[in-house]
Design goal:
Layout lengths: L3 E7 L2 E7 L8 E7 L2 E13 L7 E7 L20 H14 L9 E11 L6 H14 L10 E8 L2 E4 L3 H6 L2 E7 L4 E11 L1 H27 L16 H10 L2 H8 L4 H20 L7 H27 L14 E5 L7 E7 L2 E10 L5 E4 L4 E4 L1 E6 L16 H14 L12 E10 L4 H15 L9 E10 L2 E6 L3 H6 L2 E8 L2 E9 L6 H25 L13 E6 L5 H5 L4 H10 L2 E4 L5 E6 L2 H15 L7 E10 L2 E7 L2 E6 L19 E9 L5 E7 L2 E2 L31
Parallel strand pairs: 5-6, 16-17, 27-29
Antiparallel strand pairs: 1-2, 2-3, 3-4, 4-6, 7-8, 7-9, 9-10, 10-21, 11-12, 12-13, 13-17, 14-15, 18-19, 18-20, 20-21, 22-24, 23-24, 25-26, 25-28, 26-27, 28-29, 29-30
């Protein structure tokens, strides 16, 4: 393909597409630019397909620090393993294109998006969706559609397309939508407790924008001589084999097993029956054909099962576990599960169960963020773990999966809006959702267990947040939206639409479509139905715990905060950090100092020591006031007076003339360690303190009649020299 470029102004952004200059050995490649953000997307395909029923599609989103003019941290100073933001962007690109490959196409497809340049106001993830659509459509890969993605905010009662970073900070929603000109395929985002009508308005605006981006692509393709799509063999059973397999499948026996109530009972019964059918099917086949034909027969069997489940939903409004389309599985909420955890809760919905655990930490426990997008610290985290035993399987315990990252991110976005600001609750908060059982909607169960555990931990959240997963069965003769879908309905259905929120509005959402998209009407029905389900769940959660515990766990650290004058920061830290290190060791606390504001956070497990550390820092950094009373300790005794520590590091002289008695020799009346109450009489320019004693609540009268107790020394040139050349004191 010859080098060509196309430019278009859309939504206040300048879009540019380049083809035929870079990565020309790939099956398809597209250099796409929006603002100063540049993404190169390449697509490649294997020459041979795999036998099965799953498309082996992988999407990799690669972020390079040079794109933002940064050098990576760490010892190696180069990009390491894929980070969470890259994984999340890969999922955003994967989900809208997966339904648009033709049935029976099982060749391996790999798409790689490289972020070469980054403008913070032009998001690379949605630009990657544009790039992959162009790369696929200009390649030999049999891709069926033109896809685009947009980011939408909501400001001043109106949707905003491709909002800037500054706009997003004030926006009610942060929404990514992908689809074709005809339908929406994927939705993901968060919101600040908005009404469903705002989401629908934003989705409509997003879909219109997607249509304009699809038109831009269509104009490009119209100017090109596109390559012919590669052919691929669709393996299938012969009519005779299909007819024989149909005869082997007893609809009554299949229905009986399909509608068993328990998940494991249903799965085991269906698996055993499938084994019987496939064995009977394979017996008359030649040995060399058995493996391949059995795989095809298995896919055929699964399709018959799928059709049966969907027919009952459409025709009889009956689901595999006996519920109506609007029905919610039984729910049980429990708090205080773990004795040592700072907060814990067990949320069970049907056969899905999440154990939420809250851990509270200090400022030093915050997560350091170092990506091409931002740098800083994160003080709220929600992590999601999905072990194989939750579905009764055996798998090696390896690293974090993309699914775990994605589900945890969705749950975190949904919950974070109820977390109080640091000024009100200066803790780092980590929530972990351990999935103990799973039969669909485990990410939404994680949101519920997290909310319950936060209240049990005493985190001052004002309300609960809950989530529910919605499904859909779409047939030519009808559509049914399903509330609170289970695992089979997720697998055999056409939609997975997760909606989370409080009683006052939506906070998080994610939607994936397995068919060619859904209409605005179905989207509206799903949102309204999800609201009814969410309110039902919230009522059950409030019945278990309706408000945060008044106190945090005794096993959680205590955090005390104090604002000190910025000029006192150096005094608190000390030379080379000597003072703050000593305090940290002596009181067994962590001390964090904000150099800009003077805010000091003191964090410790031992409450008594933490309180003492707080008082010490307060006394140490509070400006001294003339005439103010202080309780001091004598640290040194001389004949002419005593030195009194009235605050940490603040020592003044109480002269004998200010002791209130006719004292000539202070050593005769006072000793080191004695407590004495004083008032500051004078603060000299050098910082020296002149103290007066308080007796019976009154300032002692001065008995000083002569010159000051600290006579000024004469300059050296005025002093009498000894014969030895030294200086004699006056």
């Amino acid at each position: 393909m010859d080098y060509r470029t196309w430019d278009r102004e859309l939504f206040g952004k300048h879009f540019r597409v380049e083809l035929g200059r870079m990565a020309k050995q790939s099956a398809g490649s597209a250099y796409v630019q929006m603002g100063d953000t540049v993404v190169l997307v390449v697509a490649n395909v294997s020459t041979e397909g795999k036998v099965g029923d799953f498309l082996p599609l992988t999407v990799e989103f690669q972020e390079k620090f040079y794109a933002a003019g940064k050098i990576p941290g760490g010892f190696l100073k180069r990009e390491g393993r894929t980070g969470e933001t890259s994984i999340l962007s890969s999922r955003l690109m994967d989900r809208p294109i997966r339904p648009l490959f033709p049935d029976g196409f099982f060749n391996e497809v790999q798409i790689i998006a490289n972020v070469f340049s980054l403008d913070n106001d032009s998001p690379p993830d949605v630009l990657g969706i544009l790039g992959e659509s162009i790369a696929l459509n200009t390649s030999v890969i049999p891709f069926q559609g033109i896809v685009a993605g947009v980011r939408v905010g909501y400001l001043q009662n109106a949707p905003v397309l491709f909002p800037t970073e500054e706009q997003l900070a004030d926006s009610l929603i942060d929404l990514v939508v992908a689809g074709t000109k005809d339908a929406i395929l994927m939705v993901e985002g968060e919101a600040k407790e908005v009404d469903e009508s705002i989401l629908l308005e934003a989705l409509q605006a997003a879909h219109e924008a997607i249509g304009r981006l699809c038109d831009f692509q269509a104009d490009i393709f119209a100017e090109l001589d596109l390559p012919e799509k590669m052919s691929f063999a669709v393996s299938s059973l012969s009519e005779e084999e299909a007819s024989r397999l149909i005869d082997l499948i007893d609809p009554a026996a299949l229905e009986e097993r399909l509608f068993l109530f328990g998940k494991k009972e249903r799965e085991n019964a269906l698996a055993e029956y499938k084994k019987e059918v496939l064995q009977a099917f394979a017996e008359p086949l030649p040995e060399e054909e058995r493996e391949s034909k059995t795989r095809l027969a298995e896919a055929f069997y699964e399709e018959r099962l799928r059709k049966m489940m969907r027919r009952f939903v459409i025709e009889k409004r009956r689901r595999v576990d006996g519920r109506t389309p609007e029905g919610i599985r039984p729910i049980r909420c429990e708090t205080g599960i773990l004795p040592r955890a700072h907060g814990s809760a067990l949320f069970t919905r049907g056969e899905t169960q999440s154990l939420g655990i809250v851990t509270l930490g200090g400022p030093d426990d915050s997560q350091m963020i170092d990506t091409i997008y931002q740098q800083g610290n994160k003080t709220f985290m929600l992590h999601y773990n999905f072990p194989a035993f939750s579905v009764g399987e055996i798998k090696p315990l390896r690293g974090l999966s993309r699914r775990e990252v994605g589900h945890g991110h969705l749950a975190e976005r949904s919950v974070k809006h109820i977390i109080p600001p640091l000024d009100d609750f200066p803790y780092t908060v980590r929530v972990v959702s351990e999935i103990l059982e799973s039969n669909g909607s485990s990410s939404m169960a994680s949101i519920c267990s997290a909310s319950l555990a936060l209240m049990h931990a005493g985190v001052p959240v004002k309300k609960h947040v809950a989530g529910v997963a919605m499904g859909m069965v779409f047939e030519e003769d009808g559509v049914e939206v399903l509330s609170d879908i289970n695992g089979m309905e997720d697998h055999l259905g056409d939609m997975d639409f997760k909606v989370a929120g409080t009683k006052d509005g939506v906070t998080g959402f994610q939607m994936d479509i397995k068919v060619g998209g859904i209409s605005q009407e179905i989207m509206k029905q799903a949102l309204n139905q999800a609201k009814v389900a969410r309110l039902h769940i919230l009522n059950l959660m409030s019945a278990e715990i309706s408000a945060p515990k008044p106190e945090i766990s005794p096993y959680a650290p205590m955090i005390l905060s104090i604002d000190i004058p910025t000029e006192s920061i150096g005094e608190l830290i000390g030379p080379g950090g000597k003072t703050i290190k000593r305090l940290t060791k002596d009181f067994e606390v962590d001390i964090d100092v904000d150099d800009l504001t003077g805010k000091v956070s003191i964090c410790g497990i031992d409450r008594d020591k933490t309180n003492l550390a707080y008082q010490y820092v307060k006394n140490m950094t509070t400006p001294l006031v003339i005439g103010e009373k202080y309780d001091g300790i004598i640290t040194r005794v001389e004949k002419y007076g005593v030195f009194v520590e009235i605050a940490p590091g603040k020592v003044g002289l109480l002269h004998t003339s200010n002791m209130g008695e006719n004292v000539r020799d202070a050593t005769t009346v006072m000793k080191i360690g004695d407590a004495v109450q004083v008032v500051i009489g004078k603060i000299e320019p050098t910082g020296k303190l002149d103290l007066k004693r308080i007796i019976d609540g009154k300032v002692a009268a001065s008995t000083r009649t002569g010159p000051p107790h600290r006579p000024a020394r004469k300059p050296p040139y005025q002093r009498r020299r000894s014969s030895g050349g030294g200086i004699d004191a006056e």
